[in-house]
Amino acid sequence: MTTFNLPDLGEGLPEAEIVSWHVAEGDSVKTDDLLVSVETAKAVVEVPSPYTGVVEKLYARAGDIVATGAPLVDFSISATAAAKPEVVATEDAATVVGNVPTGGEVLQETAVAGSSRRQKQGRIKATPSVRTQAKRLGIDLADIVPTGKNGQITGGDLESFVAKDKVQARSRSSRPKAIVGRSDQLRGPRRVMAQSMSNFRDEVALCTLFDDADIHEWINKRSMTARFLRAIVAGCVAEPGLNGFYDADTMTHETESRVDIALAVDTEDGLIVPVIRNVEAMSIGDIRAAVEDLKQATRKRTVAPQDMINYTFTLSNFGMMAGRYATPLMVPPTVGILGTGKLQHDVVAVMGGIEVHRRIPLSLSFDHRCITGGEAARFLAAVIQDLELPE
Amino acid sequence: MAANMAEVTLIDALTMAMAWELEHDPGVVILGEDVGVNGGVFRATAGLQKRFGEDRVQDTPLAEGMIAGISIGMAAQGMRPIAEIQFMGFIYPTVDQIINHAGRMRNRTRGRLTCPMVLRAPYGGGIHAPEHHSESTEALFAHMPGIRVVIPSSPARAYGLLLAAIRDPDPVIFLEPKRIYRLNKQEVEDNGKALPMDVCYTLREGSDVTVVTWGAMIFETMKAADQLARNGISCEVIDLATISPIDYETILESVEKTGRLVIVHEAARSCGVGAEIAAIVAEKGMYDLQGPICRVTGYDVVMPLFRREMDYLPSVKKITDAIGATLHD
Hints:
The structure holds two protein chains of two kinds. Chain A is α+β, with helices and mostly antiparallel strands. Chain A has eight helices and 21 strands. Chain B has two domains: 185 residues, Thiamin diphosphate (ThDP)-binding fold, Pyr/PP domains (Rossmann fold, 3-Layer(aba) Sandwich), CATH 3.40.50; 128 residues, Rossmann fold, CATH 3.40.50. Chain B contains twelve helices and 14 strands. Chain B is of the alpha/beta class. The interface between A and B is large, with 44 and 54 residues.
């Protein structure tokens, strides 16, 4: 049982009149719940409950005058609540109004006056805009030599750092991967590439023709690779000579009836060239399905070795990342390879006006030992014509 | 422990300081409503009239303008009046006296007269008081030239800064955070030693963020700093202590070290003292800032009645949230 005495509600006033009770005996109350309204000489004051518990007894009724410090309410307080009343009405805490919280805690603090005690350990100085820019570029301001007033890094400092050290800056921007020097003997697809490129250099008389296919009319924009494959078939129909082999020893040019196209695919292990066979016999839907299968197989590394040899033509779709035109190199004994570059939105002249069309840059390389420029140009023209069809 | 060392509350420390000065300087006079017989609305002057007599501790009529005016007159003639205003909400009738006369005395008389008076007033919320008993309007006086505004935040600073305020030759508005009048105790030696005004007090050194605050908000801010320290965030907590003039060197040097600034005050946000601190750091500490300056303040509304007052005041959570936000920028 805890008795709550009428606190001094104002400036040492000796007594107060109970105006109304907001609780009755037996009520459960929480700390800060309204308990009673009392009128002092100064004002009507709402007294909140200092405890959480049950009201056991009210010592006065409305209209009674109660002396300051006289018992007002008995509370029965649960053990947990009793342990820590939030507001303790201490002797003569004396407020006109409200409760000044009291606590027994002893303050331990070290308060240092002023700033003279500090040793300078200045950090990097830079404007917020320079900091933001550096953050965006992934540059650590600590790497930059400041030239500004009071040792401040200026926008110019940042710019010249970027200009002077672009490569470094970029490597920082992709911090997770540091450049580590190493030496590897070539193996796997990369070894094959090295051999075939050496053969190529020793044998082939390379010539490359560049042009663009305007695909503004395309209806179905899915699977560009399938369209490239079909266009190659169209090229092969127009100029079958590019679809075949050249044997330098016997100076024999073989033209093939099947169109088996190798797709140059960039993987982490290097270039691999799985083959789609008999493309000439496929509908565009078949080709799409075949390309899809091939992608799966490539990703899972389940392309069998026999599916990577004995092809008649090559498609190199290098433009996925960047690069408009290239001089793609075929692997002997084949004699033709088509490279497709990055899709562009180009300004084109249309009937005397200007329009913006999507165009695909094309690079057709051929072995000039057995193919003439005219044959290559007609092949490319057929490729373009097929590519520019709406679907 | 020195003989006159005692664990005292903030309000005890104020009483101690006034008693010391009444005893040691015959020019010191206390005046205000019920400061004498009654001992003051919060008992700051309890027992002083009995000890030093009615001439030294004088009860006045309920007329704040008059209290300020009489104090100015006494101060200009060489006495050292300490006037008490019961609540900051009642201080506004003194504004004409304080701004037009106390703050200008030195300038107006070309330095022939000064105005060594202290106007004490409890301020701030959190004690469940009724209307206009809870707000923090220190910025009003901080804006006025010629007036010093001082706010203690611990018993030791209450003692040392009040002594300094009484002894200063110019007027001081001495605002007392009433919520922490009796919240804790501190060992304070009653030795008559003043603490310097016009400087900040660094209560906690840290390296990640500078938190500037004053008055009762020190309590929440130190708690927030403790919490954040457990998460590896190191806060430097600075008690502004003198609200005007601001010791911006301490703040700027701290921001130079931490690169980030959070200001906590319970006064309304707009045109608060926090805005001035933010402006100073933007002007003079711009190149050290690594993130935006952040303020945790009351709202731009009338200070609410007690059921909502804790929602109005910056809480530990609001402070830790703001510090977290400024660190992530």
